Amino acid sequence: MTRPAVRRRRRRLLLLLALLALAIVALALLLWYVLAGLLPKPAPPGPPGPPLPQSQPASCPDVQFVAIPGTWESTDADDPHAPAANPAALLLNVTRPVQEQFPAGRVDVYTVPYVAQFSNPIALPPDGQQSYNNSRTEGTRRTTEVLSGMHANCPLTTFVLTGFSQGAVIAGDLAARIGAGDGPVPADQVLGVTLIADGRRVAGQANEIGADPSGIGAEVALRGIQVPGISMTGPRDGGFGALADRVNTICAPGDLICDAPRNALTPTNILGSVQTLLGAVGNPVHGQYASFVVDPNGTTATQWTAAWASALIDGAPQPPHS
To answer: Which PANTHER family does this one have (predicted)?
Structure first.
């Protein structure tokens, strides 16, 4: 075989090897995305339900208060009525006082158990946690199930929702769906919603409690970012619809989860932005809402939320039971 023929053969072999390497990389990236999880699209609205009855079973509470914990503050096996996965979980400062104030027949205080994790997609070795997409999807599914299940069995029960951090994103997303008429319960049976450190916060879409920071939620600042396991979904187009006057938001200045400067997190610097976002989840400001003061009386965010929920429950309708 001549030298030119040998060179041509080598070039073809190198080209085939390069194409094979590219195919392997492409397959690895595809598997990375698939295994990390994508956010599912919300189901389309179903047909209107039957008219409400005149009474409901004696076992039904008048109100269901649903709390959705933040990242690393729950597990999917936690007890929804006595959560203990994280003794320092922020929303325990809200749910426990409400449970102590009211009997179970008046309010069912339900803390959604879900994986509540946020893995670092570029960690080597992998950190072993569930991705944000998978965690958020599970939290949304479980919250939807508990709301729709209660409404199916207790159609006159009304609802109060709260969420912190990742839980605030989940609660806010469901509130937006309910307000648009395609949620798991009717909008007129939701007494109120309070979001603490909402990653999709946009000024003007909800009632600001305490400070009114000029920034935006991290998911809004990073709108359009798609890395394995992390989908930044941007603002909630349309806001909270019919629930707009009943949704509150609490955001501490400097908390990058809900008060991100528009140029602090950029899609053009994906790796740096993801690392900043992961750091923001554990930063001191984000973890201090139990001491973050929201009014001149020195009321903290969690104290305000507990008092707000208690007032709604105290004034809620008392449906007849059969």
So the answer is: CUTINASE 4, CUTINASE RV1984C-RELATED-RELATED
Number of helices (H) and strands (E) in the chain: give both, helices first.
7, 8
CA 109-112-118 angle, 5° bins: 145
Helix segments in the chain, DSSP class H: 3-36, 92-101, 132-153, 166-179, 218-221, 270-281, 301-314
Q: Which residue reads 């999917």 in tokens?
A: 76
0.90 cut: is pTM over it? no
Considering the candidates 255, 259, 273, 310, report the single residue annotated as catalytic.
Answer: 255
CA dist 54 and 56 (Å) reads 7
173, 259, 273, 286: the active-site residue = 286
Whole-angstrom distance, CA of residue 247 vs CA of residue 133:
24
- For residues 222 and 256, the answer to whether their CB atoms sit within 8 Å is no
Catalytic entry in 165, 231, 273, 310: 165
Q: Is 167 strand, coil or helix?
A: helix
92: phi then psi, degrees, rounded to nearest 5:
-60, -25
Q: Which strands form 63-68's sheet, in the order they lie side by side?
A: 107-111, 63-68, 158-164, 190-196, 247-250, 207-208
164, β-bridge pairs: 196
DSSP sequence for 2-23 = -HHHHHHHHHHHHHHHHHHHHH
Active site residue 286: yes
Query: pLDDT tens track of the chain, all 322 residues?
Result: 566 665 666 666 666 555 555 545 444 444 444 455 666 666 655 555 667 778 899 999 999 999 999 999 999 999 999 999 999 999 999 999 999 999 999 999 999 999 999 877 666 566 678 889 999 999 999 999 999 999 999 999 999 999 999 999 999 999 999 999 999 999 999 999 999 999 999 999 999 999 999 999 989 988 877 777 888 889 999 999 999 999 999 999 999 899 987 776 666 666 666 666 666 666 788 999 999 999 999 999 999 999 999 999 999 999 998 8
Whether 165 is catalytic is: yes
